[in-house]
Design brief:
five-stranded mixed sheet; alpha/beta; globular; 8 helices; disordered N terminus
Length: 206
């Protein structure tokens, strides 16, 4: 007999993929955020955008968060999200709040554009800020990636920091993904940017 689906959470965070889900889950658990919230991995940005209005309309929903990469064009990503909100008669600010946007409506809506609501980038650019200050391996990881000849690189220039981060993660005692590195305290969760994200989650899901 198939297991019946679990009832929808009254508080849900929509994310693009498994890496985002695991990073946020480990941050949530490390900070013991309460009330808790579910994290819904939609698989890609288009599916996140398409799910915004149905998630808002889910009966009993108290708060919906949207956490996605800004990628190369923060303004375009912001417009894509706020256009969906307007279709649900929710008016969003003209630009993101640098500390995370909260729209007080029913349900409460939150938007976070990785890495910092202000710059182009992605999840890895956020996680880089969690590498401990003075870590001796981080400069070596940067130099290693920078030393790879352009002709031999399989990644674009815009993905250089992502490659540097994963080179650093590969040097851990037990090389692991970003979320697990948070769980075992390889990454520092007390930095300003990380604390801004945690504060946003607390405000959104209060």
């Amino acid at each position: 007999m198939a297991t019946p689906p679990s009832p929808p959470s009254d508080r849900v965070l929509l994310v693009e993929g498994p890496d985002d889900k695991h990073v946020i889950r480990h941050l949530r658990d490390r900070h013991q955020l309460n009330p808790t919230f579910s994290i819904s991995d939609k698989g890609n940005i288009d599916k996140v955008l398409d799910s915004i209005n149905p998630e808002i309309k889910t009966p009993g929903r108290l708060a919906v968060g949207v956490l996605v990469d800004a990628n190369d064009d923060l303004k375009a990503r912001w417009k894509a999200i706020t256009d969906r909100l307007r279709k649900a008669n929710i008016q969003a600010p003209s630009s993101p709040d640098p500390t995370g946007t909260i729209i007080e409506c029913q349900p409460r809506i939150g938007i976070w554009l990785m890495p910092d609501n202000s710059m182009p980038g992605e999840l890895e650019n956020f996680v880089i800020h969690m590498i401990p200050d003075g870590d001796p391996i981080w400069p070596q990881s940067q130099r290693y990636i920078d030393s790879i000849p352009e002709a031999d690189r399989k990644f674009s220039q815009g993905k250089t920091q992502r490659a540097q981060l994963h080179a650093w993660l590969a040097t851990r005692e037990d090389p692991r993904k970003m979320g697990l590195a948070i769980g075992v305290c390889d990454l520092n969760i007390s930095g300003t940017l990380c604390q801004d994200l945690i504060a946003w989650l607390k405000r959104l899901f209060a």
